[in-house]
Design a protein that fits this description.
This protein is α/β, with parallel strands linked by helices. Helices cover 33% and strands 25% of the residues.
């Protein structure tokens, strides 16, 4: 079968640029039956020395130092955005208007208004689009969705999730600049809400349906930090920690926590869902395992079971090794890239689309607004199955 090439133009060569590039490189090896295949055509970053080295390391055929020049090229079919959040809107809209497919790192945007403009741009242009909420593509998480959709848990009562880190527990840490843009509200939009809780919210709505309203608390533990660009001591406007609870459309309750001030945690990401007939829980630190409790089991053997998600009849695992051998974090990006190319064959959307991610952005904004005035906020999420 003759392959149809999709020529990728990657903008940004930091951490996410590496994960996406690795995803593209593995497609021909592990998803050889796909009709479409990626060609790593060009990568773009502002510093020529950096982007040239990245292109050589990851196998891009060429490089640019101006993202507008990359989008203008006739030999680019899809633009992949891996830059700080404040650049998402302008690049995504320009790429869509140029008729390019658009893949964008999460979150969709800094705020709801920017997100709306991005959704309108891809709709108007009629271009394929997706957001890299990669944790959906871990086999154990996908298996959790299959179990939930099977009805085995029955009516859902509770969903809880957290995402804990500790890397900002340092009052001398600066904000802004290339290394610490996530600490700068102008670049990031929000702190842990957009960076970490967005992952929790996306998974929650994918697994458990829409969120109707939220009540939240946020905290900034260090009120002023030196800005890396200006050298001045400036007010910190991003949230260091956030806790919120919510009502889901299916009647269940949700509880969410995220912080960068949980000493001892580098990336503790978990969820648990409790239903009438059973429960599920998952932990990123043991990402190949899904914990499952089935209340219909005989009483003498009833208890939590640990499912090692490595068998060929479990999601995605037929593409990899033999049963019992694990895969890792990076494979979630391989799977999302593969699903995107598969969607080109089927003509279906590759979820989450920009429109899907706008739902997550609505919830994030409601969380921030609720913390400001200490009131419940309606998320106004128009939920549809994905």
């Amino acid at each position: 079968m003759e392959k149809k090439e999709i020529r990728i133009g990657l903008i940004g060569c930091g951490f996410m640029g590496r994960t996406h590039s690795n995803g593209y490189k593995r497609i021909p090896n592990f998803f050889p039956d796909l009709q479409y295949t990626p060609v790593m055509k060009a990568v773009c970053s502002r510093t020529e020395e950096t982007v040239k080295a990245f292109a050589q390391q990851w196998g891009y055929e060429s490089y640019e130092t101006d993202w507008k020049a990359l989008i203008a090229r006739d030999d680019i079919d899809a633009v992949d955005i891996c830059v700080p959040n404040n650049m998402h809107k302008e690049i995504a809209i320009a790429a869509a208007e140029a008729g390019k497919m658009v893949l964008c790192e999460k979150p969709l945007s800094r705020n709801l208004e920017e997100g709306k403009q991005m959704v309108e741009a891809v709709r108007k242009a009629g271009v394929k689009n997706t957001i890299w909420y990669n944790y959906r593509r871990l086999p154990a998480v996908t298996l959790a969705k299959q179990i939930i959709e099977s009805g085995k848990l029955g009516k859902i009562f509770h969903y809880r999730s957290n995402f804990l880190q500790d890397w900002t527990i340092n009052e001398n840490l600066p904000q802004g600049g290339r290394a610490f843009w996530r600490m700068d509200a102008n670049a990031a939009g929000s702190g842990v809400t957009g960076d970490l809780l967005a992952h929790c919210i996306d998974l929650a709505m994918w697994l458990n349906g829409g969120i109707e309203d939220v009540s939240s608390v946020t905290e900034i533990f260090v009120k002023q930090r030196k800005h890396e660009d200006t050298g001045h001591l400036e007010e910190v406007k991003i949230d260091d920690a956030c806790i919120f609870h919510c009502h889901f459309a299916n009647g269940s309750l949700g509880l969410f926590e995220s912080t960068r001030y949980a000493r001892g945690h580098k990336a503790l990401f978990t969820f648990e869902i409790n239903g009438e007939h059973g429960s599920l829980k998952w932990d990123l630190h043991d990402l190949n395992r899904l914990e499952y409790f089935n209340n219909t089991d005989d009483s003498n053997v009833k208890g939590w079971r640990s499912i090692h998600v490595t068998d060929g009849d479990q999601p995605y695992m037929d593409k990899w090794w033999v049963p019992g051998l694990s895969i890792g974090y990076e494979h979630s990006f391989v799977h999302q890239a593969a699903d995107f190319f598969k969607s080109l064959e089927s003509g279906e959307d590759c979820h989450p689309t920009f429109a899907d991610a706008l739902q997550t952005q609505r919830v994030c904004e409601a969380v921030i607004d609720s913390a400001k005035d200490r009131q419940w906020k309606d998320t106004q999420v128009e939920w549809k199955n994905q």
